[in-house]
Amino acid sequence: MKKKLVFDIETIGADFDKLDPKSQEDLTRYANSAATSKAEYDKMAKEAKETTALSPLTGEIVAIGVYDPDQNKGAVYYRADKEKTEDIEEKGIKYVSMTEEEMLVKFWSLAEITDEFVSFYGRGMDVPFMMIRSAIHHIRPTKDLMSNRYNYSSSRGAIHYDLYDLLTFYGASRKKGSLHLWCKAFGIKSPKSTEFEGKKVTQYFKQGKYLEIAKYNALDLRATAELFSYWEKYLKFS
Questions:
Q1: Residue 65: which of 10, 14, 142, 19 has the closest Cα?
Q2: Helix 100-112 vs helix 127-136: angle between axes, to the nearest 10 degrees?
Q3: Structural fold of domain 4-234
Q4: Which of 190, 199, 221, 235 is most buried, by CB atoms within 10 Å?
Q5: For residue 152, what pLDDT is reported?
Q6: Smallest Cα–Cα separation from 58: which of 30, 27, 89?
Q7: DSSP class per residue in 141-155
Q8: Where are the domains of the chain?
Q9: What's the pLDDT score for residue 214?
Q10: Which of 170, 168, 164, 167 minimizes the C-alpha distance to 150?
Q11: What value, to the nearest 5°, has the Cα angle with vertex 184 and ends 179 and 189?
Q12: CA 181 – CA 204 distance, rounded (Å)
């Protein structure tokens, strides 16, 4: 049996006001050139300042979750800065505190022995983010999870099922849908139904809610695994 791994990451962004002037200028350049009024500029600049967590150049990884849907077991590796934590396990998920570098080393070591990978928007966010952050830490990825998007397979034997691609037929669908909407449509418990929101991870991290972030990540893992099961049963042809 091929070994599957569902994965998901959580990221935080740099404080815009603490960035150097040139970086601030770069991040708001589009607002400067595209805005046609001060109100529009303020809105676009605000968005740029609040989305630094979406880029590996201005963001960092604070959690990497991995889940084996066949074994119903997984782990979330998470940062808990300045807080001493002990490893715990709940409902088949282990929670282990690590640095960003340690998380990436662990993920790529697991990737090396994995045949099939499952994500939701992994090619658009998770994988590029992890690859660039890995390079920053002088870590070389063990599998190419970006190549050969349209036939699932990647080099060196890896297969990456990105459900965002597969469920929208590689963007052919007019409406794409979020993980929350796809879960609701298939009757899956959505991780986005809780008061915890992914866009607030930076805020929660500053508040020291490290384990809460990790548990939110675990909800994403299980929801993605269930969604993959529906796709595999009803929509997969090869």
A1: 10
A2: 120
A3: Nucleotidyltransferase; domain 5 (3.30.420)
A4: 221
A5: 64
A6: 27
A7: -SS--SS-GGGSB-G
A8: 4-234
A9: 97
A10: 170
A11: 85
A12: 24
